[in-house]
Amino acid sequence: MTNSNRQLKCPSCGATFVVEDGMDSYYCSYCGEQIFIRKPHSSVEKSKHIFYHKTITDEAKIKKIELEERAQTITLADKLSERISSGVSVIGFIILTIILICIFIATFASVKAKSDRQERELQSLVDTVMQDIEEGNFEEAYIHAESIRYTANWSDEIEKKWDAIRKETINQIEKAEKQANGDTDDAWWDIFG
Questions:
Q1: CA 147-150-152 angle, 5° bins
Q2: DSSP per-residue string spanning the chain
Q3: What is the dihedral of CA 81, 84, 86, 88, to 10 degrees?
Q4: Tens digit of pLDDT for each residue in 1-60?
Q5: Averaged confidence pLDDT in the chain
Q6: What is the distance between the alpha carbons of residues 162 and 156, in angstroms, rounded to a whole number?
Q7: What is the pTM for the complete model shown?
Q8: 5: region left, alpha or beta (phi > 0 left; psi from -120 to 50 alpha)
Q9: Which residues neighbour 177 within 8 Å (Cβ) at sequence distance 6 or greater?
Q10: Which has the closest alpha carbon to 132: 182, 178, 176, 184?
Q11: Which residue has the higher pLDDT, 2 or 186?
């Protein structure tokens, strides 16, 4: 060994290597650890320096491992939170969809029930008109016939049906009134339509 070189041991892997005097740091060719070198004043100080550096290196590795473990724990917690969050959003979407379907069905049923109720009322009016015609109450029959109007807005076909029923009912009232009054002037027109 010459005066310009000295032999040291790597504090990480224990490999022996030769370092030129004046170098501040060295990378171990076996494990890649960076080793900081300080000039020793005595042989005791030289051994303290390497031991001190090895202790720092070991503590740094431990802290590095702890930080990596903490980062993995945080990452796992984030992933778990993300899965729970996405699961909650899927469940929320399903619940919202079910609620909207229930509201739609309830609205549909309510409107249909209103339409059915109004059709029963209109049929009752038609029956009242027929009774008025039989009793000769033509003015009452006209008033009731004009009240036969479908307003539930369930379908256009039902509205057209009740408009046609109203018109036909008024025609029946007019015919019955003419017959009751003995008015046969237009009787020959009835043959054609």
A1: 130
A2: --TTEEEEE-TTT--EEEEETT-SEEE-TTT--EEE----SSHHHHHHHHHHHHHHHHHHHHHHHHHHHHHHHHHHHHHHHHHHHHHHHHHHHHHHHHHHHHHHHHHHHHHHHHHHHHHHHHHHHHHHHHHHHHHT-HHHHHHHHHT----S-S-HHHHHHHHHHHHHHHHHHHHHHHHHHT--TTHHHHTT-
A3: -140
A4: 445 677 878 888 888 878 777 777 777 878 878 877 766 555 555 555 454 455 555 667
A5: 79
A6: 10
A7: 0.46
A8: beta
A9: 138
A10: 176
A11: 186
Return the structure tokens found at 184.
């046969």
Residue labelled with tokens 């290597």? 17
